[in-house]
Amino acid sequence: MSLPKKKWWKEDVVYQIYPRSFKDSKGDGLGDIQGIISKVPYLKELGVDVIWLSPHFDSPNADNGYDIRDYEKVMEEFGTMEDFDTLLKDLNNSGIKLIIDLVVNHSSDEHRWFQESKKSLDNPYRDYYIWRSGKEGKAPSNWPSFFGGSAWEYDKTTDQYYLHYFAKKQPDLNWENEDLRKEVYQIMKFWLDKGVSGFRMDVIPLISKHQDFKDMSVAELPHPETIYASGPRLHEFLQEMHAEVLSKYDVMTVGEAFGVTETIMNNMTDERRDELDLAFIFDIVRIGRDNWVQNEWSLPELKSLFQEQNNTDQFHWPTVFVNNHDNPRSVSKFGCDDPKYRDMSAKLLAILTLTQKGTPFLYQGEELGMTNYNFTSFDEFDDVEIRGNYDQVLESGVTKEAYLQELNKSSRDHSRTPMQWSNTKQAGFTEADKSWLVVNPNYTEINVEDQQSKEQSVLNFYKKLLQFRKGKDDLIYGDYKDLDPEHAKVFAYTRTGVKETYAIILNMSSDALEFSFDLHEHHFTLALTIGEEPLGTVAHKNVKLQPWDGHVYVSKNKL
Ligand code: ISL
User: Which CATH number goes with the domain that contains 500?
Assistant: First the structure.
């Protein structure tokens, strides 16, 4: 198989910032853009190449910014357009690119388009959204919202319902309407002309709707995304967006491919089709998940999911991530929450994310080994997804205790607790006495300041590994081979490039063990390790690994 085409967005490491929780400069308990600006030197020293900024646009925050009221205005709580321009300039001057979040499957119901659209059946903006008459006094179809209840909301002004896949305050935009699409392309150009380097596209597969709005079957209802993400005109819309906008800039696009089939995913990211460059699929990060329930999973299952995304040709390029703002903290899900091995496991996940094939996406706090928070009551949650689903989950017979126990494994709020900068009050995130969301009390032992001063910290390991990875084309582009898919504790794989082969051996268990892989036969030397092993020539033939230890070997031989 010929090697993939080299691109900056295949080599760069992306770091996601959830602005609400990153750093507060104004003392109101909310993160803001000036706060991010103050941390650009931190990001540069960390060694990441691109920042993905979660929505910074004007919003009433029904879904923490994923409900946009004005696409060309900065959210007041976050600051001003001048602040945004300063952030972009400071990042670029530090050699860091900025991609922003494009949320165009839906807007806020407070957007002027929707305020107009709801006024009358013949309003010029009526068709910017999806309105249908009810049937016998009920909603047009049985489609459910992801955030609880029906996906149809009745509006008495015009005696019709409007569609919202998410919260009622997030009405879906009508992409069948060419004028609406042109407005979206204008918005994209507005930010691209400022110099952003691309977009992360929120639930982009959902923009094309089945126009019959036919009732879902009983089998389809528990997973509406399979219907919502298979609309007939998705590829047409994406190719039009590429032709009208993206083809005119050297930018990167990553689609949140929530709910798509493998075929749609492959078509959406095939570089010969001029649609999107990359996509997030959630099989890995949500392994074992059944909606808000987190079931057990095994390492062989996880390895098979990584194998699947490696079974691609040179026209496709994966993304690699185990954290984001919608999922629990990776060290709590994939690593080890036991303080004895927590840091080791966080470093192991760093090696996994940064040596797998694909563009790595890190999430704020992952570089510290930040963990889930133990929510003790529903009052502590902020997430609209929980609030929206609460009644119907309890009405289904689930007890409050059981729901809370599962949410403590699956809630989106785990990743939204404020970034932990120091062991001063509110973890140095804000001067205010209270943050918008609870600060994890373990900030006293997990924070930037403490880890900057400790050579063996998770933070310094990420810095070392990010530096190690830079420019290593054979590690970045090399072919992937799982050395032992069925092993229950060890994740071992090679990356074979033009000149070098890397062997990554990870002990994802709390047991010391020996992994049989003949290092001498292939002249491997130890290039990077979590534990104390001396680098260079290896004494013993096989690989000896302490609990949660990880080794990266290199050889001039091609395996
Ligand atoms: O899986 C989910 C649905 O139950 C959610 O975690 C999430 O809503 C889904 O992955 C889509 O996420 C994106 O769109 C949402 C927003 O709430 C998320 O933060 C965003 O990442 C609506 O804009």
Answer: 2.60.40.1180
256 is known as an active-site residue: yes
pLDDT > 90? residue 135: yes
Buried b (16+ CB within 10 A) or exposed e, 334-372: bbbeeeebbbbbbbbbbbbbbbbbbbbbbbbbbbbbbbb
Q: What is the pairing mode between strands 490-496 and 501-507?
A: antiparallel
User: Is residue 493 assigned to a domain?
Assistant: yes
Please give the pLDDT value at position 1: 54
Domain end call among 433, 466, 499: 466
pLDDT tens figures, 247-270: 999 999 999 998 999 999 999 999
Residue closest to 536 by CA, chosen among 523, 528, 526, 544: 526
Residues 176-235: tens digit of each pLDDT: 999 999 999 999 999 999 999 999 999 999 999 999 999 999 999 999 999 999 999 999
- DSSP classification of residue 171: P
Mean pLDDT of the 488-509 span: 97
Q: With a 6 A CB cut-off, is 63 part of the ligand 1 pocket?
A: yes
Look at residue 508 and tell me if it is in a domain. yes
Q: Are β-strands 319-320 and 359-363 bridged in parallel, bridged antiparallel, or unpaired?
A: parallel
CB 494 within 8 A of CB 504: yes
Q: Is the CB of 143 under 6 A from ligand 1?
A: no
User: Best substitution site from 258, 282, 412, 416 to test ligand 1's pocket, by max atoms within 8 Å of Cβ?
Assistant: 258
When divided into structural domains, the chain yields a total of 3
Ligand 1 lined by 363 (C-beta under 6 Å): no
Percent of the chain with pLDDT over 90: 96
Question: Would you state the structure tokens that stand for residue 383, as one six-digit string?
Answer: 């997430």
pLDDT value for 337: 86
Beta bridge partners of 496: 479, 501
In one letter, which amino acid is 294? Q
Q: How far apart are CA 437 and CA 417, in angstroms?
A: 6
Q: What is the CATH number of the domain that holds 137?
A: 3.90.400.10
pTM above 0.70, yes or no: yes
Domain that holds residue 318: 8-103+284-466
